[in-house]
Design brief:
The chain has four helices and six strands, in the order E-E-H-E-E-H-E-H-E-H. It is of the alpha/beta class and about 110 residues long. The two termini are about 20 Å apart.
């Protein structure tokens, strides 16, 4: 299914927030999917506005536990935002997941 995705770089149609990983991974993902908001673990900015403004939130649970993970997930539930979990470790595969969801409404839910 992932092989059928369109080319890179891809411009998102929605306001997407990505969190749960490190800055190197986020920068690599940004090469594949542009115009995405990222919440980095080291960020001191207010993430509540980012969560409120997001159309969909993608979380990467496979790399390491995010320092603010519990607070962010609680806020996502509070604001009833669409939460998706990445099923792959690599940024290119995760970018393909975003594209599949954006273009075809397909979401690969293997673990959650």
């Amino acid at each position: 299914m992932l092989e059928q995705t369109k080319g890179f770089p891809y411009k998102s149609k929605r306001n997407i927030l990505v969190f749960g990983t490190n800055s190197k991974w986020l920068k690599t993902l940004n090469q594949y999917v542009v115009d995405i908001t990222y919440y980095e673990e080291t960020s001191k900015s207010d993430y509540s506005a980012k969560v409120r403004n997001a159309d969909v939130i993608w979380y990467h649970p496979k790399i390491k536990k995010h320092a603010n993970q519990d607070k962010l997930l609680k806020m996502v539930r509070k604001h009833k935002k669409d939460l998706k979990y990445f099923n792959f470790k690599g940024p290119k595969e995760c970018a393909k997941e975003i594209i599949l969801y954006e273009e075809e409404g397909k979401y690969i839910s293997r673990y959650y």
